[in-house]
Structure formats: C-alpha cells, structure tokens
Amino acid sequence: MTTTFFLVRHAAHDRVGTILCGRMAGVNLGSAGKAQAESLAQRFANENVACIRTSPLERALETAQPIASRLGQPFQICDAINEINFGRWSGTSFDALSRDPRWSSWNSARSTNRPPEGETMLEAQGRIVGAMEQLRSLYAERSIILVSHGDVIKAALLYYLGMPIDAYCRFEVEPASICTLVVGGWGSKVLRLNEVVAA
After folding, report:
1. Among 4, 33, 112, 121, which residue is least crowded by beta carbons within 10 Å?
2. Any alpha helices (H) in the chain, and if so which ranges?
3. What confidence tens digit (pLDDT) does each residue in 17-64 have?
C-alpha cells in the first residue's frame, strides 16, 4: 500500500531571496508567483488527488487556491506544514543575517542550532513527517498535494531519503516546484525532485 505525495513549494513572492520572511504576515504572491500558481494548477489538472493540504501562510494559500479550483475540490489548512518558525529572524534581510554569527552557525549545523526564539529544523521535520504519516494512513493508494515551504519540504525529503538534516543544502526546492514522493510500508522513493513548471 503506497501513498504519493506531491510536495509543492509556494509560488514566488516579491521578497524571495532578499528577506527571510518566515511566518510574517502579509507576504503575498507577486505577478510572477500568480502566474506560477496557475501553471501548477494546469500541471495537476489530470491528477487523481485525494486531498489538498496547505500551510496557513498567505503565499501558500494563494498557491493552493488555483490548484484546488482546477481540481474542483477544497483545500484544508494544515498547521503542521507551516514554515519553520524563525523567531526574531523573521522579516530580516539576508544581508543583515549574513553579518550575524548565529546565522552562519544555523546554516552550518541545523541539527544542533536554533533560530533565536524559533524552532529547529528537526522540530519542523517532526511536524511535517507526522502529518504525512497520518495522511498516509487515511489515503492508502491515493495521491495528496501538500503546499508548504522550501526548508520544510527539504526536511521531509531528507527524512524519507534517510539523510541527515545537515544535508539540506545538497538539493534545491525552488518556488512553485513539485517534489513527488511515494511512501509505503516497504520504504519510500523520490520520483521527481524540484520539478518546475514554466509559467
């Protein structure tokens, strides 16, 4: 009995690559991101999907909406697949973070470091994997779309690949990308990694 997960990173917003948004409110998709979300909806048009779950953040909701509309089914918010809680780093520019030694420590050893007043990447991994295992028990032999965030998706993939959390930088999960993962009682395998659909 297997379950197929489509792990979708939200589409692009105007702060991608410049600000660590984390869980800050009011981060919406830009025009490019809206086009990407529509392309994702086209990509999933012929998939037989049992359910759609999304992070509660605006940029994820705005990515999930056209997918759900195209498939003619609702989506549900799932707090367990929310972005990593970056604590006091949320809303800080990457330029400013690059001057913070704690940021360097975080990126060199995420297995042992925590953002100030935030959560570890291992804690985020526990959240998303727990949600996926629960969904797997409910939707055997079905497909599920999870709209989440880059590092959270990486954490899930690392778990199912049997890789350490500090290997997070060995592959990319771009905005509006899809990673397809099959999970069964026998184990798991990645079918596609960082599939980007042209807008």
Report:
1. 112
2. 31-43, 58-71, 94-97, 101-108, 121-138, 150-161
3. 789 999 999 999 999 999 999 999 999 999 999 999 999 999 999 999
3-class DSSP state of 159: helix
Helices and strands, counts by H and E, the chain: 6, 8
Convert the pLDDT of each residue in 64-89 to its tens digit: 999 999 999 999 999 999 999 999 99
Q: Using CA atoms in the order 62, 147, 190, 48, what is the torsion angle rounded to 10 degrees?
A: -80
User: 103 to each of 7, 9, 122, how far by Cα in Å?
Assistant: 26, 23, 16
Of 125, 116, 50, 58, the closest CA to residue 89 belongs to 116
